[in-house]
Amino acid sequence: MTLHISYANKEITDHARASQSASAALTQGTQYSLLLKNQSAQPWTFYVYQKMPQQVADVFSLAWFCSPYQIRVGNQIKFTWEIDYNFVWSDTGQLIPGVEFLASGVQDGSPSGANTTTFSLDGGPGFSNPVRGDPAGSLVIKDAANVPNSRFSVGIGMSGTGTYVVQAGTNLTHTFTPTPSYWIAAGTNVSIGTVLSIDTITQTNEAKFPSAVYNLVGTLQEDNSWTVNPA
Questions:
Q1: For 183, what's the count of Cα atoms within 13 Å in the CB-facing half-sphere?
Q2: Which branch of life, at top level (predicted)?
């Protein structure tokens, strides 16, 4: 059985996705898919997360996509998304691994366009309408003076689901430079928005898309290692 979960605004076929121009890679609206197969010895929850090229101590990766239940041996799940950036926030309390980041608000943003927003509590917590600001190519969140420390978390997402988050605080500024790096994993007790401790994740592997490749297949084998190949 294949479960297919799509986060694309308007999904295209696998053939159309594979036919996207190589120059489209990492540009707004480019679609990708990951088919994850379980050929191991037991059921697992499959999830996908993004990882920064260089980890920053106070920036946490989230379980970006996640199977809604364990995937049995012989079964598979497919995730589809597109390069479409967002700002996200949540009332998490202290941000530590294991906490659930449930996005209470999502605001579209663009590194090459309206890339800067302010998070404040005026009229209730939320973002301002993004505007173009410096540095170009990044996504910037400015916490207002009325944002308390250790109460809220803010960050960025892709296709409407959070990818990286930080603890918000009074008059802080958070700058994210999107460089998507996709990783697949098999685990337990994880769901969309789980704050991850990258160093402790096992049974994980990078899902690297070669040039002009937009559909990948990841297979968890009997030894709990992954193989990743173009679809």
A1: 23
A2: Bacteria
